[in-house]
Amino acid sequence: MAKLKTGRHTSAIKEFRKAVRRTSANRALKKKIRNLAKNVEIAITNKNSDEAKKILPECFSAWDKAAKVGLIHKNAASRKKAQLSYKISQVASKAA
Q1: pTM above 0.90, yes or no
Q2: Cα Rg for the chain, rounded, in angstroms?
Q3: Element holding 91 (H helix, E strand)
């Protein structure tokens, strides 16, 4: 591809297009992990530990995948998973 007459470089234009696609994918994945965590929190608030435990593996998987691709730090994912597990264990122990 030749240089455009406007003086912009084609590589910069291509990188911008890639950045738009990546941003869109990153936003979607971040929204997914936040919604899953929120669903677990709602189940915990409603004292429904069975439902929370059912959602938890999917939530863990999403957080791990986000950490794997570098969307969030691996320690942040680990911390969030530990917090959710702890909250579920607290609800389960109170119910028992």
Answers
A1: no
A2: 20
A3: helix 74-95
